[in-house]
Design a protein that fits this description.
3 copies of one chain form a homotrimer. Chain A is an alpha+beta fold. Chain A has helices spanning 23-27, 38-55, 76-90, 93-96; strands spanning 2-9, 63-70, 100-105, 117-124. At the A-C interface, strand 1 of A face strand 2 and strand 3 of C.
Chain lengths: 128, 128, 128
Amino acid sequence: MDILFLSGQTGRDPFEDAPCRTPEEERAGKGKVMSHDVKQQTRQCLEYIKNTLEMMGASLKHIVMFRYYLPRREDVFDMRDEMYRFFEEFEPDLRKHPRNATLLRGVGIDLKEMLVEIEAWAVVPRKK
Amino acid sequence: MDILFLSGQTGRDPFEDAPCRTPEEERAGKGKVMSHDVKQQTRQCLEYIKNTLEMMGASLKHIVMFRYYLPRREDVFDMRDEMYRFFEEFEPDLRKHPRNATLLRGVGIDLKEMLVEIEAWAVVPRKK
Amino acid sequence: MDILFLSGQTGRDPFEDAPCRTPEEERAGKGKVMSHDVKQQTRQCLEYIKNTLEMMGASLKHIVMFRYYLPRREDVFDMRDEMYRFFEEFEPDLRKHPRNATLLRGVGIDLKEMLVEIEAWAVVPRKK
């Protein structure tokens, strides 16, 4: 059995985002999100999670727990809608058997433009 | 060895609480806590944790780590008092050998009425 | 394989800090940090992590994930600088192969004087 701890995924722009090394770089916008819409950022988080799992020989259905961080309290509804849509498309088991989750609302995450961060943990049966 | 990741437990009302699907449902009070007192909510969290562990064939003594989330900084003292009382009643080992814990104060959790959220991780020796 | 869950380490003063049992004790300053500088607190967190791992027969290189909590958003840059310095000194592998990490900025942690909290998880191959 392998346990995969996936660190928090965000709506980083996969092409334009760059790590900020100074407050000036951050203020100048070196860190970039791919959209200012919480649904699109949610989908981006889930795609990063899906890709990471697949790169490691696992898949979405191995997820056992989520943790959600939302700077704006009211975004929980749009986030949830988009998650359901994504699950139905890629792994209906996550919709049928909802995984444990911790939800934090009104917390700060990395860039100010980030509206959602999602952590996932997966347990993968070891191949014999 | 099995590792149990228990997601954040809160003071949800076990009979009256219902998931909120829209901001309107939330504002109308569909999500309900069982009390507005932090001690009672703490006890409710711990009872959910105890029940979940027992349902899975484990018990409170298998807990290896806690994480506490408190929206109001000053509630830490009442939360701690109630935890000690609960541990002494149900699992004195948690009082005698305090488990590792991370404490967050002044963070937002799910419903505005929730005063405390507790996550627990447990490690259970595998039965032969 | 053993998994070590290290709870959040902070800049507590290793000699002067005492647990606060009441709001009055906290206001009176019973809980103490070893410095009001985020770099020094970061180094203290990492030293606690290093010592804990070593006490358990593990070392910094076994770390697989970090989680950082920063009450003040802008402290991320100083924290990162100090982490890099510490890693280069004690475990260059952490610098060469950055571990997964979740970063929370603008969240509350235990004492108001604490500027940073760091959690680490380590995976240690089991000795035969």
